[in-house]
Amino acid sequence: MQVTPLQLAQATALIANKGVWNRPHLAKTVDGVAPVDEHPMPNILLKD
Fold first, then answer.
1. What is the pLDDT of residue 21?
2. Distance between CA atoms of residues 48 and 38, nearest Å
3. 1-48 residue pLDDT tens
4. 30 φ/ψ angles, rounded to the nearest 5 degrees
5. What is the model's pTM?
6. What ranges in the chain are assigned the alpha helix state H?
7. Where would I find the Penicillin-binding protein transpeptidase domain in this sequence (predicted)?
8. Cα–Cα distance for residue pair 4/7, rounded to 1 Å
9. CA dist 30 → 19, 35, 36 (Å)
10. For residues 4 and 12, is the Cβ–Cβ distance under 8 A?
C-alpha cells in the first residue's frame, strides 16, 4: 500500500483530533479583514 506524505499527515491529524477531520485551507484575508483563530492551539513544550 502506498500513501503520499500529505495523506499520512492527514491520517495523523485525524487521530490527534479524536476522529474530527478539518479540511485544510489557506486564507490571508476574508473581505479585507485578517482572520482570527477562534481556537488557537496551545504552545506545547517539547524539551526543557
1. 79
2. 29
3. 799 998 898 899 889 988 887 777 677 677 777 767 777 777 677 676
4. -125, 110
5. 0.45
6. 5-16
7. 1-35
8. 5
9. 28, 6, 10
10. no
C-beta of residue 40 within 8 angstroms of C-beta of residue 33: no
- Quote the pLDDT of residue 17: 85
23 vs 25: CA distance, rounded Å: 6
Exposure string of 13-25, with b = 16+ CB inside 10 Å and e = fewer, is eeeeeeeeeeeee
> Alpha-carbon distance 21 to 25, whole Å?
12
* CA 6/CA 15 separation, integer angstroms: 14
